[in-house]
Amino acid sequence: MVTLNVIRELLADLPGVKEGFSYGTRAFSVRRKLIARMHQKEDAVVVRTDFGEREKLMQSNPLTYYITDHYLNYPWVLVRLPTVQREELRDLLVKAWRRGASKSQIAEYESRGK
Hints:
The protein is α+β, with helices and mostly antiparallel strands. Helix content is 37%, strand content 26%. Helix 1 (4-11) packs across helix 3 (86-100).
């Protein structure tokens, strides 16, 4: 199962990622832009996305990807940690990071062959 420590590992090589708190839970940001945070339920992580991708994720795997009424009008998706595959979450986190990272941070990451 994916845990907070696994999420830390998945984000570790992304330039500029900082760990802090948001709404009382562990959170990760780049350039002060929130990219993911642990949900209060502790078995889910909230990840920045866009509405189109969120819809695709929820349709393709509703056991893993969902939203609550609170997130209906915001570009975020909740991800159940017990059911998400590590690499699938990694891809989603990298996309979220790219939404907030600077061009130079993205270039640095890509120069490593990522």
